[in-house]
């Protein structure tokens, strides 16, 4: 089945016959001369490559114009350093932003080819794990759309986030080889190669002028080769660049060893070097895995900074004004080693003294924090850092010494000094990368109002006190062009027909929908486009997992990375409680409901993988129970990625955003779902707080403990057993899970899971269960009153225009980067 998001395009372009014919001829030329195919024998993949190359020709001239104009004007630009760019498929984005969708559709139709089938042939560029990478992709598109000169820098992983296969309810990981059939969007820049050094030793050497400088004699050198992908802004206003680095060995083959018969050993250096860009997030349970992660992070940070300096020096005589011409954003802690690397480059390579280099470094960098979870704030063992990056450890020690001297001079005592030190002495001496990013940046931002305040109050409270108030908030956003225009053209046609095509350029016009929430005819049309999207999703569910579901049922959706704090377990336990109630009262007035789950667990995250298995076991039991008469169905859709999200989000009725309050930094899935008219059930966590403020408490289902109440429960000590004893529904659900109702072949399969919940419910699943269960009953009541439900759905779409990533980028540009969009 074709998994492209929609059978119809958003017709923002009105091509004439000449434009259609010209594009058709271009596609045919690409098919023949670059793909090497024949129209009568071409496969859908051949047509995709030919169409992408034809579209790319339209991009390249504007890309060159953009770059020439930026150089001529010498405008300040942004460099966005991110370990992840979850860009997904690009053909529909490129055609849509260029206004060529309908041109391409009609050009292909004249050849007997369907554009949606062609678009479905594109591999998802799964260069990210979830929200972090998808945010980076949205930000790149928004910077191009509002006119901010930008480069995105990351790694060209040969295998992106693993492809998830569910067999016997278990997650299995296989490589996601997205480059296997080629990538028509990228341009290899063979002249852009930088040396990345590892290991070796550092010596103090006297220069010709008598000055002393530190010289790093590396034990290993790896080359970083650039691949560029154009990022097309809305209506082709600007074309920015995503530059991804691929690792190459400096000497790919030791010929003498090969000729001696050691065919494998002769390629060992090449394999070690190229492993750096082989896989996104290699497992880090072993020391070797941790070392590879660190090598990846330094590899792309160093290559990116060398490239930034090269481009700056091509236009300026020195590096003293670097921060005036470029702003470098660290997207989480992964590129934080860049702080020490820029210091090394400025001092050791370009001859700056410490004070000048530090001033430039702090003025250049800013840092986005994405998590309050201690385990996600990266730290690296000092011995590993000293072995892999000896010069950087020297620099980090010096940064730390000066940082602590300043704090001590301001009256900091030993406890505060220990808290703000870049070296954590409590756990075997580790470098705190979040601290390094904080100290080395002039601005630090959280990604929702609640998250930023919690940063000030908790994990970075002491640093913020010592360094001066550097923390600001920049609530995340999403690009409406992908998550509304392209993902949900049915709804977009309805909106543009009703409130005008100006909506495509101005998301704030969504507020014009507010009075239409009282219009019964509009509500019916709004509901009708949702049902059409649900019918498409039912086909995907049937194809992927063989489950037939009712498109008239409530589609209750939780789609995100599988993690205990995101509390998929709370959803599953409540599903069991609902199942128990429906079996106990089979003649009750139950609304038809389809519970839809999707998400991947990290390969080494065993508890998350057990939750996936439980979800599938619960699904198998419920879906096969004839007493329910199809009223409740559970679907776990494997291999969640951007393209699958584009299918699910337009079809969702209820958006599950149920993380433990205070732990979700922001969330962007909540924004995408609300934009498409789904009602949120959620805690007051992350951006849910701001969604609640904008859509109104009557149009959202808020439940559970607040962040302050969660903190208090944890301080006081929470006993899950008391919560279970006080809740018959919760007790019944956990007993069913623990006793093997959903795993009859292995009755004790989930006993340990339940026991761990009872003894250490760190994410307060049991504490919030009753409130969540009650709000789910409120959801059912509201769903049974269509007038009320669809009024709230319209108001959700109407009130979320503020969550556009264009707004977010304008906030960054004004407050942090000091860049003027145009």
UniProtKB/TrEMBL annotation:
Q: Which UniProt keywords apply?
A: Allosteric enzyme, Carbohydrate metabolism, Glycosyltransferase, Pyridoxal phosphate, Transferase
* Positions carrying N6-(pyridoxal phosphate)lysine: 672
A GO cellular component annotated for this chain's UniProt record is: cytoplasm
> What is one Pfam family matched by this protein?
Phosphorylase
Q: Give the UniProt record's GO annotations in the biological process aspect.
A: glycogen catabolic process
The answer on whether this UniProt entry bears the keyword Zinc-finger reads no
Under the heading InterPro entries, the entry gives: Glycg_phsphrylas, Glyco_trans_35, Pyridoxal_P_attach_site
User: What is the E.C. number?
Assistant: 2.4.1.1
- Which reaction does this enzyme catalyse, per its entry? [(1->4)-alpha-D-glucosyl](n) + phosphate = [(1->4)-alpha-D-glucosyl](n-1) + alpha-D-glucose 1-phosphate
Q: What cofactor does this chain's UniProt record say it requires?
A: pyridoxal 5'-phosphate
- EC top class named in words: transferase
Q: Name one GO molecular function term.
A: glycogen phosphorylase activity
The family line of this record is: Belongs to the glycogen phosphorylase family.
Briefly state the protein's biological role: Allosteric enzyme that catalyzes the rate-limiting step in glycogen catabolism, the phosphorolytic cleavage of glycogen to produce glucose-1-phosphate, and plays a central role in maintaining cellular and organismal glucose homeostasis. Phosphorylase is an important allosteric enzyme in carbohydrate metabolism. Enzymes from different sources differ in their regulatory mechanisms and in their natural substrates. However, all known phosphorylases share catalytic and structural properties.
Name of the protein this chain belongs to: Alpha-1,4 glucan phosphorylase
Q: What is the lineage of its organism?
A: Bacteria, Pseudomonadati, Pseudomonadota, Alphaproteobacteria, Acetobacterales
């Amino acid at each position: 089945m074709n998994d492209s998001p929609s059978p119809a395009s958003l017709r923002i372009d009105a091509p004439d016959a000449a434009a259609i014919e010209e594009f058709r001829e271009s596609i045919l030329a690409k098919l023949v001369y670059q793909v090497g195919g024949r129209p009568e024998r071409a496969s859908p993949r051949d047509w995709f490559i030919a169409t992408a190359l034809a579209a790319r020709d339209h991009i390249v001239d504007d890309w060159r114009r953009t770059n020439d104009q930026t150089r001529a004007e010498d405008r300040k630009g942004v460099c966005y350093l991110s370990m992840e760019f979850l860009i997904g498929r690009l053909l529909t984005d490129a055609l849509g932003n260029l206004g060529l969708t309908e041109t391409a559709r009609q050009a292909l139709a004249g050849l007997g080819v369907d554009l949606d089938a062609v678009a479905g042939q594109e591999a998802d560029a799964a260069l990210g794990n979830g929200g972090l990478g998808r945010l980076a992709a949205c930000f790149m598109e928004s910077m191009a759309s509002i006119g901010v000169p930008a480069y995105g820098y990351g790694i060209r992983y040969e295998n992106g986030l693993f492809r998830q296969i569910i067999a016997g309810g278990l997650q299995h990981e296989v490589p996601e080889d997205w480059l296997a059939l080629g990538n028509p969007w990228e341009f290899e820049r063979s002249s852009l190669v930088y040396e990345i050094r590892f290991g070796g030793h550092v010596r103090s050497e006297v220069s010709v002028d008598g000055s002393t400088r530190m010289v790093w004699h590396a034990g290993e050198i790896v080359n970083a080769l650039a691949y560029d992908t154009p990022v097309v802004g809305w209506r082709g206003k600007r074309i920015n660049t995503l530059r991804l680095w691929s690792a190459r060995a400096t000497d790919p083959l030791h010929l003498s060893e090969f000729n001696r018969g050691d065919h494998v050993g002769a390629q060992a250096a090449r394999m070690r070097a190229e492993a750096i860009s082989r896989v996104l997030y290699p497992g880090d349970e072993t020391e070797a895995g941790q070392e590879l992660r660190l090598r990846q992070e330094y590899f792309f940070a160093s290559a990116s900074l060398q490239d930034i300096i090269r481009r700056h020096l091509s236009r300026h005589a020195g590096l003293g004004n670097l921060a005036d011409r470029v702003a470098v954003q660290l997207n989480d802690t992964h590129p934080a080693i860049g702080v020490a690397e820029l210091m090394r480059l400025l001092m050791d390579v370009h001859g700056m003294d410490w004070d000048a280099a530090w001033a430039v470094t702090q003025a250049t960098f800013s840092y986005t924090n994405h998590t309050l979870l201690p385990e996600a704030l990266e730290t690296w063992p000092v011995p590993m850092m000293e072995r892999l990056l000896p010069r950087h450890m020297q620099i980090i020690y010096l940064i730390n010494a000066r940082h602590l001297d300043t704090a001590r001079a301001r009256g900091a005592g030993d406890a505060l000094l220990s808290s703000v030190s870049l070296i954590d002495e409590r756990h075997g001496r580790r470098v705190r990368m979040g601290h390094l990013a904080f100290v080395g940046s002039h601005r630090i931002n959280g990604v929702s109002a609640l998250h930023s305040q919690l940063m000030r109050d908790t994990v970075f409270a002491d640093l913020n006190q010592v360094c001066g108030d550097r923390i600001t908030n920049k609530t995340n956003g999403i690009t409406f062009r992908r998550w509304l225009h392209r993902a949900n053209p049915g709804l977009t046609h309805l909106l543009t027909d009703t409130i005008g095509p100006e909506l495509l350029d101005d998301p704030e016009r969504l507020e014009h929908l507010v009075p239409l929430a009282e219009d019964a005819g509009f509500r019916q049309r709004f509901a009708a486009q949702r049902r059409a999207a649900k019918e498409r999703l039912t086909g995907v569910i049937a194809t992927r997992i063989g489950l037939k579901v009712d498109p008239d049922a409530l589609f209750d959706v939780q789609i995100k990375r599988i993690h205990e704090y995101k509390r998929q377990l709370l959803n599953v336990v409540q599903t069991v409680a609902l199942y128990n109630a429906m079996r106990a009262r089979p003649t009750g007035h139950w609304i038809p409901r389809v519970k839809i789950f999707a998400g991947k667990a990290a390969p080494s995250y065993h508890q998350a993988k057990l939750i996936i298995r439980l979800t599938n076991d619960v699904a198998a039991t419920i879906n096969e129970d004839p007493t329910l008469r199809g009223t409740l169905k559970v679907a776990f859709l494997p291999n969640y990625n951007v393209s699958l999200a584009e299918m699910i989000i337009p079809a969702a009725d209820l958006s599950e955003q149920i993380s433990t309050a205070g732990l979700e930094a922001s969330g962007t899935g909540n924004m995408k779902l609300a934009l498409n008219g789904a009602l949120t059930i959620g805690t007051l966590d992350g951006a849910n707080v701001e969604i609640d403020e904008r859509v109104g408490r009557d149009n959202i289902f808020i439940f559970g403990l607040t962040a302050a109440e969660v903190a208090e429960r944890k301080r006081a000590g929470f006993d899950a057993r008391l919560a279970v004893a006080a809740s018959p529904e919760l007790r019944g659900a956990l007993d069913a899970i623990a006793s093997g109702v959903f795993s009859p072949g292995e009755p004790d399969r989930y006993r340990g899971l339940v026991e761990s919940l009872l003894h250490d419910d760190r994410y307060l699943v049991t504490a919030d269960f009753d409130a969540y269960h009650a709000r789910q009953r409120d959801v059912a009541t509201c769903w049974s009153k269509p007038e009320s439900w669809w009024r709230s759905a319209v108001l959700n779409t109407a009130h979320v225009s503020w969550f556009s990533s264009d707004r977010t980028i304008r906030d960054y540009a004004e407050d942090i980067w000091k860049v003027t969009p145009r």
